[in-house]
Amino acid sequence: MSLTWPHGPVAVLGAGPVGQTTALLLARWGVPTVVLDQRPARDPIGSKAICQQRDVLDIWDAVGAGRRIADEGVTWTTARTFHRDHELFAIEFAEAGRSAFPPFVNISQTRTEQILDEHIAAEPLIDVRWGHKVVHVVQDDEQVVLRCDSGNGSVEVRAPYLVACGGARSDELRSLLGVGFHGRTFDDRFLICDIRADLPGWATERRFYFDPEWNPGRQVLIHPCPDSTFRIDWQVPAGYDLDAEVISGDLDARIRAIIGERDYEIVWKSVYRFHSRVVDRMRCDRILIAGDAAHLVSPFGARGLNSGVGDAENAAWKIAYVGHGWAPADLLESYHTERHAAAVENIAVTTATMDFLVPQDEQQARHRAEVLAAAGTDPDARARVDSGRLAEPFWYVDSELTTPAAERPFAGRPPRGQVPSAGPGVLLPDAPITTPGSGVGRIRGLARDGFMLLTTDGADLDTARTAASALPGPVRVLGLAELDPDGTLTGALDARAREVWLVRPDAHVAAVLTEPTIDEITTALHRATARTTTPHGIREENHDGALHAGG
Q: How confident is the model at residue 535 (pLDDT cuts 50, 70, 90)?
């Protein structure tokens, strides 16, 4: 889309995947960015975050990178869980509609960053500045001012907004902003080894072992990666000494207990402990905090990077809409309410997992032992085994931007491996579509170009078009029957006659309205862009970009 941005470049702090994604998504909206990173250059070391979820690949596809990341990664569709040497269950992942991507792809964070860097290099709206350490931040009603140590003296950067995604070690920034970072740190460590080896039959599945004989009393997680590489995570006790284990030969014995006498090569190894923390504010006036700078979770469930990319998309479209004058500045407050709720959900899910993996008291330890002992034969016990609920898009059902529908209530967190039914607040199912003059495409590709109104049989297209015409910014009005001749999307939505579906620029459903009037559609549109509306759809709004007290 061709757009003229009326401000200076938005500042993005941190050139990791969340910062890269933020800059690329803002560029789609015609928004220039300056990306600041204190490192002298990219440091391509280790696999780090390896597990990329289907809907994150879909976000990267919007900036041209998703298909390449998916094609280079290892596709897996099954998660197997074992107790000692007995398989307890296997989960295969469901989808609504027909996605362009598999449920999960494993590829090193290093390689993902390299691919995103190539897209950034081809984007003239993005200016990446390595070796810029931000040492001070202030803001007023018009801008954010950052003072950086560039190695060649102090540099000042002025920006209308700042997206702060500098990673877990953002203590100074959080302190400058006055935000808390509450939670807990777990005592047990985890040893990571990326090994290259030939392991037939292991290349398409994730394996989780409780209490295997080769790591008694603790856990092991094995993930396939490209180039015959496998990521192995062992839970190890506090005080574990990796260097001593290398010298003694015990690390070799640890690896061979899993792979046998096959040849192998250690590509990378590290020891980490993990945290469960979230900031109390993800929006501080003109500054939005994202990724690990805002929330830290245990790695079981792959909810770190995947959630950070969700932050990036949420921040990007809202900054674009406010800055272009299409929405009032209050829209930015919904970034905090939506993404903080997502972070709290991730904390709840991963904390429950950690309490099962590393019991915190005798009662939790007894519960775990009883569940694992029974799970071999009892299906109900198997359902209580928690080896990590894998990443999924958050549902904005309680957001102030979402119009609820009594006939489509949210049923709550779905079972593992399932997705919630389509409805207000839920990510739109993806499916192939046919568009006049453009041929075959995908519904989420259309959705991410702005707001979209989808009408079902019997709904009045003219009513939807009249309502849409009053909304600043890009809005599409499309008939579902023409887009979806084979009924795949219709079935995934469980679409009913005389409905109008309102979809946001991040492809989440904002409203499902039945036989709506112009006023009802207008009210839902205004709600989805944080406007104050009267019953007749007359709006009171502020497009000057000023941030209000309490933000």
A: very low
The rounded distance, in Å, linking the Cα atoms of 510 and 427 is: 9
Pairwise CA distance, residues 505 & 315, whole Å = 11
Strand partners, 511: 502
CA distances from 251 to 126, 207, 371, 459 (A): 44, 20, 31, 65
> How many residues in total does the chain contain?
551
pLDDT in tens, 503-532: 999 999 999 999 999 999 999 999 999 997
Q: What are the φ/ψ torsions at residue 126 (nearest 5 degrees)? A: -115, 125
Dist CA 477 CA 479 (whole Å)? 7
pLDDT digit string, tens, across residues 143-176: 999 999 998 899 999 999 999 999 999 999 999 9
Pairing mode, if any, of strands 181-185 and 189-196? unpaired
Distance CA 458, CA 514 (A): 10
Element (H, E) at 275: strand 275-279
534 in Cβ contact with 523 (< 8 Å): no
Q: What is the pLDDT, as a whole number, of residue 94?
A: 66
Q: Give the separation between CA 49 and CA 17, rounded to whole angstroms.
A: 10
Q: Band of the pLDDT at 1, cuts 50, 70, 90?
A: low
Kindly list the distances between the CA atom of residue 353 and the CA atoms of 192, 206, 276, in Å, as whole numbers in the listed order.
19, 16, 11
* Residue 62 pLDDT class (50, 70, 90 cuts): very high
| Residue that is written with structure tokens 């990326």 in the block | 194
For 324-363, list the strands marked E by DSSP: none
Question: pLDDT tens for residues 266-310?
Answer: 999 999 888 899 999 999 999 999 999 999 998 888 899 999 999
Q: Give the integer Cα–Cα distance in Å for 277 and 280.
A: 10
Cα distance between residue 107 and residue 46, in whole Å = 11
Three-state DSSP class for 490?
Answer: helix
DSSP SS3 for 59: helix
Distances from the Cα of 319 to the Cαs of 64, 94, 126, 324, 402, in angstroms? 21, 33, 16, 8, 18
> Considering only CA atoms, which of 331, 311, 328, 338 is closest in space to residue 399?
338
Phi-psi region of 122 (alpha: psi -120 to 50; beta: other; left: phi over 0): alpha
C-alpha to C-alpha distances, 351 to 222, 260, 299, 303, 347, nearest whole angstrom: 20, 33, 11, 12, 6
Structure tokens at 427: 């990510």
Give CA torsion, residues 498, 501, 502, 508, to 10 deg: 170
Q: Provide the b/e sequence for 398-413 (b: ≥16 CB within 10 Å).
A: ebebbbebeebebeee
Instruction: Say which amino acid occupies 340.
Output: H
Half-sphere exposure of 16 (CA within 13 A, CB side): 25
The string of DSSP letters for 390-435 reads: PP-----TT-TT----TTS----SPPTT--PPS-TTSBPPB-EEEE
